[in-house]
Design goal:
It is a single chain. This protein has six helices and eight strands; from the N terminus they run βααββαααββββαβ. The chain is of the alpha+beta class and 176 residues long. The protein is elongated and about 65 Å long.
């Protein structure tokens, strides 16, 4: 059987009809929930591969990454005291490699009473390297890791690919 290619316009009625057709087709796609859970498993592994667990100085940056089902769908969670700092970056280094959404979300680099300029002109701060807070290390911050932002892009891409696979398997292809 040849694949059907349907070209649709952006007119409301045609979009409504296409959405209804796709919803009807979705009912015939077997294993969709397990497909999305497989995609989420892949996204969690990808995110874990991007995320530093420790800064090498005894501080845990991210404790856990997992997905969970919610009443409205699914959610990927990262737990840790410093998840936002890892995602968006900090200080001078972070401002040189900012997160794509930093400005939009109000993230500001290089602020705080603890930041100072050294005699040789470096801007940064000291942080404790041990749990007793007896040893400190100077930092100028860290780059934006963007693990959640990259994960979102990957999940969207994987979902889109899975939907296209299923449409092709159903011998239907839609073009806007």
């Amino acid at each position: 059987m040849a694949n059907k290619v349907r070209t649709i316009s952006l007119d409301r009625q045609e979009i409504k009809k296409t959405i209804q057709d796709l919803q009807n087709m979705k009912k015939t796609i077997k294993g969709f929930p397990s497909d999305i859970e497989t995609i989420l498993d892949e996204a969690v592994l990808y995110c874990q591969s991007l995320t530093p667990i420790s800064d090498g100085q005894g501080r845990h940056l991210v404790y856990n990454t997992y997905w969970t089902k919610t009443p409205s769908g699914y959610r990927i969670v990262q737990e840790g005291e410093n998840v936002l700092y890892v995602e968006f970056g900090t200080g001078q280094v972070g401002s040189e490699t900012p997160h794509e959404l930093a400005n939009k979300l109000g993230w500001v680099y290089g602020i705080g009473e603890h930041i100072f300029t050294t005699k040789d002109g470096k801007v940064g701060w000291f942080f404790p390297t041990d749990s007793t807070r007896t040893e400190y290390r100077f930092t100028q911050g860290q780059r934006a890791n963007m693990q959640s932002w990259k994960r979102l892009k990957i999940v969207n891409l994987l979902c889109l690919l899975r939907i296209l696979e299923n449409l092709i398997l159903l011998n239907n292809l839609y073009i806007l």
